[in-house]
TrEMBL record:
It comes from the Bacteria. Belongs to the short-chain dehydrogenases/reductases (SDR) family. It holds the Pfam family adh_short. Gene3D superfamilies: NAD(P)-binding Rossmann-like Domain. This is Oxidoreductase. Keywords: Oxidoreductase.
Amino acid sequence: ARDKAQGRVWLITGASSGFGRSIAEAALAAGDTVVATARRPEALDALVAAHPDRAVAVQLDVTDTARIADVVADTVLWYGRIDVLVNNAGMGLVGAVEETTDRELRDLMDLHFFGPAALVRAVLPHMRRNGSGAVVQMSSMGGRFTFPGVGGYSATKFALEGLSEALAAEVAPHGIKVLIVEPGSFRTGFAGGGALRQSAPLDAYADSVGPVRSGLPESDGKQEGDPAKAAAAILTALAAEDTPLRL
Ligand code: NDP
């Protein structure tokens, strides 16, 4: 067992890049303890080396639901509890509905829906025991509305949002918060953004965002947002007394 955890204990998926990495960095900067997971934990070596007492990198493919129980059990064994689960791992998928294969849809549902659902199931008993906790669900503006070329991607995020909305009501009496994050376009390793720019003008995307812009500090004009600023906004929202359901 490691030393007793400092600050809150975060379990983050897809922490090797983009939002996941920025959230891990922000949590560490706040003095918290982070179990940073990804399929490529070696990409987290430098982050862990900078905070050897408060950070650990763990291999986790969230579509490997059998492994999820082990990672959750290890986290609780090492640090005694889990305060924040961040279901962040994800990827883009662009294509017409007619051309999107059954395999692609099932794989993306595994990544954006079944994996996060399994993590929630595994983590909640520990949070309920503590009478506190937070689940951050990285959705997308595409989880709120959709447009041509992103039907498959949106469907997986709609599924995650439906689950999360009910979850929020179920766990609120136990002192557990659920925060659904709906980014627009951010500068990360995200495959969807690049492919989207090739397949459809970003202008059309920006126009379709309309009145449901998220509460994240997004881009101004057509520039993509900074994931570090989004991470800071997520930490602020979690710390608030009245954390919103959606950010
Ligand atoms: P990145 O590609 O930069 O990061 C994705 C992360 O997910 C990587 O750390 C990757 O690490 C991990 N990952 C991918 N597949 C798996 C898997 N099967 N199991 C575990 N980890 C996996 O993209 P973003 O940071 O942008 O994406 C994070 C989330 O944000 C996603 O859910 C995405 O849908 C959402 N989002 C992003 C937007 C953007 O504009 N960037 C807009 C809206 C939503 P590794 O390869 O090591 O496993």
